[in-house]
Write a structure and sequence with these properties.
It is a single chain. 43% of the residues lie in helices and 0% in strands. It has 238 residues and is mainly alpha-helical. The termini are far apart.
Length: 238
């Protein structure tokens, strides 16, 4: 005697494949949420206690990143400028502006301004700013074109897969050390390949032969470690 209807076989098959599809779709959704700006903070402008525009100071006035971030080449952090650095200019320029009263008050009271952190890695990640600068990794490779940002935002996801993209093929991101802080640096020939200084760090497959050759030469010259060492867990997790 047949207990179940013939359609039960079809329902069972559809349920199995449907369950597999549902699990796969759920994993995809979770992965997308994990990579989204909601989770990573990417592309979200961070408001500061002072209306400071990197676009104006770096882009328009051409102030070098290292004028304010003095420890970028020597320390594990780039550092935040003391108020005295601001007052080097603003004791004479915009010295009465109400927007800069917070800066003047900080200088008078010798109390640092509490800037909001934009790039904040987890505590279990070891990152040394100086080693990247000394090996020819440009500011824009991690921070994006800050010279075009009125309010700075996190240009990259800062997730491990993003770090590994560079650690697996560092030659795609290297530049001469004297060009590290040059926001608009781009070797001749990349424009024809459709690659600009703003996108070169994520379009390695489109790099011109001239750009690729330069990266490989700098990799040897700067004695960059091999990919196995750069992607070892202990390199970033200590």
């Amino acid at each position: 005697m047949q207990i179940f209807h013939h359609s039960t076989n079809t329902i069972a098959k559809v349920s199995i494949f449907g369950g597999i599809f549902l699990v796969a779709a759920s994993l995809w959704v979770l992965a997308e949420i994990n990579r989204s700006s909601y989770n990573t903070g990417q592309f979200i402008e961070v408001q500061q206690p002072v209306q400071f525009s990197h676009k104006h100071h770096t882009g328009d006035d051409g102030i070098d990143c290292r004028y304010c971030h003095t420890s970028a080449e020597t320390s594990n952090t780039a550092g935040m400028p003391p108020t005295k650095t601001c007052m080097n200019c603003h004791s004479q320029i915009w010295s009465e502006s109400p927007y800069l009263e917070i800066v003047r008050e900080s200088y008078r009271e010798n109390k640092p301004i509490e800037w909001a952190r934009v790039h904040d890695l987890p505590d279990f990640v070891y990152f040394n700013h100086s080693i990247h600068v000394s090996k020819g990794v440009g500011c824009t490779s991690c921070h994006g074109r800050v010279d075009a940002m009125p309010a700075v935002y996190q240009a990259a996801s800062l997730q491990m897969e993003w770090c590994l993209e560079c650690h697996r093929q560092p030659e795609r991101f290297l530049r001469p050390k004297e060009k590290v802080a040059d926001m608009g640096w781009n070797i001749e020939g990349d424009a024809a390949a459709g690659v600009t200084a703003n996108t070169e760090n994520r379009l390695g497959e489109n790099l011109s032969p001239q750009r690729r050759e330069l990266g490989l030469r700098l990799k040897r010259e700067y004695r960059i470690r091999d990919a196995a060492t750069l992607t070892s867990c202990s390199t970033c997790h200590r």
